[in-house]
Design goal:
alpha+beta; Beta-Lactamase; 21 helices; 54% helix; HATPase_dom; phosphorelay sensor kinase activity
């Protein structure tokens, strides 16, 4: 176990002063404590003696004055305990005193006490035994715990005198009043001059002792604070007046002896305190001056020879430094051309062997793989020294007889491995070459770290590029002027849909008129979308959600953003279909209930109308009755349409010649159209795939669409165009277009709602297209409406896969 020995003279001085001050403080604190304890001891003893004197005075007064006076006025065989018993009177008086002053403890006890309350306890019995063993002792005093409280206790024995034996001797001699009160068993049998009881007085000292301890502690704290202030003051003046000059002198010695060839002298003078350093420094400086004087004398004798030797050394050093510069330049060039560790070491190892005249060079990776790279390549992996862990942790090279182990580390916290050079045993490595090798090890570590970082960046770039290119949504990276910096394949495809030719870099087609980013072609337009998706609807029916995410940068790169474009056309269409389905379901339930409740009264109206018609002959009344029956029938037809709309329609699917079914319906409709001067055009694709559907539903769909078209066009100039052709491999498109006034945006959004109609009042119920929508949905298809010089309804029906 090493002992603590301060090396700083200031520390030694302060430790010495501290030891002296601490000793003085302990001495005075102990003296104060013992002095206060002595005062307390004398005070409590005085209080105890005062109580004993008081009790003795009371008992003496009773025996010598009160008892004879009372005896003179009462009968001889009478005895008044309250006036004649000294024990009773003294105990009663002290009980009153104790009740008024809770700090005192008084007990007068006896062995075989007449009153059991005053019988001795175990501690009091031991005190009685003490007085019996030491009959000459008049008092016993000491400190005891009574009821958990510290007391100063003083006790004296009770010796039975001859006058006491009247009541405490033989029971037959005792007064009758005593026997009647206490009986004849207890309190008797005592003999003259025998010790049979104790008088005990206790004075509490716990509070006083606590006060002494508190006072002593306060003194110690005050003393400590004063000493701390004194320490700071002494340290300040000692540091200013003494240590400053000593440190300046010591620093001067260190400055004079800090050269490498004088490091041994410097090591000798740093093992003591400042004064010892100065003394040792003066001795070493004198020795150094003596050696310098001898060297000067030798130099003066061999000056010419030494100049030649030094010139050769300088030439050699200049050549080595040039070789070092050339080595660093070539290594730097190799680092820039290397992409892996193996390439870097295969380039660097031959250069290092050539520069330092080594036989071989090896790099051993110590991070994870423990691979090694050697030159010549046939060189085996060299054995590492026993302290190779210290080489890695301390980042300090180790040079043995003909080997050197240099840590390859970019910093002290990251060591890549160990670089080993092997020389011929005759070669000596200079201190400067060792420093150069250490610097090369650090540069190689930095280069390896840079290669790792570059490889990680390239890998992350490839991963991010693959992620961005693999995204289905278009993503663009633009600068503050909305010039395209980077775009993924989806963005190029989207741009090609506007410009015709996808652009690999600029994706300029996205900024053309009518394209997605038309409003974003300026910086102000692009800023409006920051952190908030923007919904854009194009004229061709497509809809996009554009989100712009700004990149926090400064300088010339400020304002760059990532633009994400998402095609939400199908989402919007699906939402419209869902809303339409919900509307139809809600209205269907309402229509079913309404039709059921109204149809019965209408049936009653028609029934009674027919009965009235058979019994009336007045032509005017019959005409009115026909009007009633006509409108009742019309109302029933509307209700029937409602029921057809509301009731679930069981659809039986079967293979259908759709072209023939449509041709038949068109042929029937053409007759009605020609009466109104409306031209009907019909086109059917020859390669129409087969379809499985319901013929009745197809006829009803066509009838509603053709009737709507006939109502929408002008008689004499109207044209209705029906087309039927394949739409991809999985769908057949039935297209019905007219050259009427078309539909506005609001009407297109509500056209399939029940009871919605653009016709005049009385010309339509608004249920036709709602029924068409429901039928198309039941067939597994979809219906769309648009404006193209009139209303265009497109019905997409699922085709049978593989069929022609």
């Amino acid at each position: 176990m090493t002992s603590f020995k301060p090396k700083n003279i200031q520390a030694k001085f302060l430790i010495g002063i501290g030891a002296i001050v601490l000793t003085i403080g302990i001495f005075f604190a102990s003296g104060m404590y013992f002095h206060l304890s002595s005062l307390l001891d004398s005070q409590v003893k005085g209080k105890a003696d005062l109580i004993f004197n008081q009790v003795g005075a009371v008992q003496s007064y009773v025996r010598e004055v009160l008892r004879p006076e009372v005896r003179a006025v009462i009968a001889e065989d009478e005895f008044i305990i309250e006036a004649m018993s000294s024990s009773y009177i003294s105990r009663a008086i002290m009980q009153r005193v104790a009740s008024d002053d809770k700090e005192y403890h008084y007990r007068r006890v006896a062995e075989n006490a007449r009153n059991p309350l005053f019988e001795m306890n175990a501690e009091e019995s031991r005190l009685l035994g003490y007085f019996r063993k030491h009959p000459d002792e008049k008092y016993w005093e000491g400190y005891r715990k009574l009821g958990g409280v510290e007391y100063f206790v003083k006790a004296r024995p009770v010796v039975f005198k001859k006058s006491c034996l009247t009541c405490h001797g033989v029971s037959k001699d005792a007064p009758a009043v005593l026997l009647s009160r206490y009986g004849d068993k207890r309190g008797f049998g005592h003999k003259e001059n025998s010790v049979g009881g104790l008088v005990i007085v206790g004075v509490p000292v716990e509070k006083a002792v606590a006060g002494i301890n508190k006072t002593t502690a306060r003194y110690a704290i005050l003393y400590g604070c004063v000493m701390i202030f004194l320490f700071v003051l002494i340290q300040f003046f000692f540091n200013r007046l003494v240590m400053g000059n000593i440190r300046n002198l010591s620093r001067k010695f260190h400055t004079l002896l800090k050269d490498e060839d004088k490091s041994e002298v410097l090591d000798k003078i740093v093992h003591g305190d400042e004064i010892e350093e100065v003394a040792q420094g003066i001795e070493e400086l004198g020795e150094h001056l003596h050696q310098a004087q001898e060297q000067l004398r030798e130099h003066s004798e061999n000056m010419e020879q030494m100049v030649e030797v030094r010139t050769d050394e300088l030439k050699k050093e200049v050549h080595e430094r040039r070789a070092d510069v050339d080595l660093f330049v070539r290594l730097l060039d190799g680092f820039n051309k290397s992409f892996t560790r193996r390439e870097m070491w295969q380039f660097a190892l031959p250069l290092l062997v050539q520069r330092f005249n080594a036989e071989s060079a090896t790099f051993i990776c110590m991070v994870a793989s423990h691979n090694h790279f050697s030159w010549p390549e046939s060189t085996p992996k060299p054995a590492l020294p026993e302290n190779w862990r210290e080489i890695l942790t301390e980042v300090k090279p180790v040079f043995e007889k003909n080997r050197g182990f240099i840590p390859v580390a970019a910093s002290e916290n990251l060591t890549e491995g160990i670089f080993c050079l092997v020389w011929d045993e005759s070669v000596e490595i200079s201190r400067q070459d060792q420093d150069v090798l250490r610097a090369i090890g650090q540069q190689m570590g930095i280069a390896m770290e840079n290669i790792n970082a570059l490889n990680n960046l390239l890998h992350q770039k490839d991963v991010l590029q693959a992620i961005v290119e693999g995204m289905g949504d278009p993503v663009l990276f633009v600068d503050g002027n909305c010039n395209i910096i980077l775009a993924n394949e989806a963005a190029r495809i989207l741009a090609g849909s506007f410009s015709g030719v996808p652009s690999d870099v600029e994706c300029a087609g996205l900024f053309l008129e009518g394209a997605v980013l038309e409003r974003c072609s300026s910086e102000s337009g692009l800023k409006c979308h920051d952190n908030l998706p923007c919904k854009i609807a194009l004229d061709d029916g497509r809809s996009f959600s554009v989100s712009v995410f700004p990149i926090e940068e400064s300088g010339e790169k400020q304002g760059r953003r990532v633009v994400c474009i998402r095609d939400i056309t199908q989402e919007k269409q699906m939402l419209v279909r869902m809303q339409q389905s919900e509307k139809l379901a809600t209205v269907g339930k309402l229509a079913a209930g309404l039709a059921h409740e109204i149809n019965n009264p209408l049936g009653v109206i028609k029934c009674y109308g027919e009965l009235l018609k058979d019994g009336l002959a007045n032509p005017d009344v019959l005409a009115d009755l026909d009007i009633i029956l006509k409108h009742a029938s019309q109302a029933q037809n509307v209700l029937q349409d409602l029921l057809n709309f509301a009731r679930p329609r069981p659809i039986e699917l079967a293979e259908l010649d759709l072209a023939g079914a449509v041709a038949n319906a068109v042929g029937v409709f053409r007759v009605q159209a020609e009466k109104n001067g409306v031209q009907v055009l019909y086109f059917v694709d020859e390669n129409l795939p087969s379809i499985t559907t319901n013929a009745q539903a197809i006829e009803q769909i066509l009838a509603n669409l053709l009737n709507n078209g006939l109502d929408a066009v002008k008689p004499g100039s109207g044209v209705i165009d029906i087309s039927l052709y394949s739409s991809g491999e999985e769908e057949v498109l039935l297209r019905v277009a007219d050259n009427g006034s078309g539909l506005d945006r609001e009407s297109i959004g509500n056209i399939f709602d029940p009871f919605f109609t653009t016709k005049e009042v009385g010309k339509g119920t608004g249920l036709g297209l709602a029924v068409v929508y429901g039928l198309v949905k039941d067939l597994g298809g979809r219906i769309e409406v648009e404006n193209d010089n009139g209303a265009v309804f497109s019905v997409y029906l699922p085709a049978e896969k593989g069929g022609q």
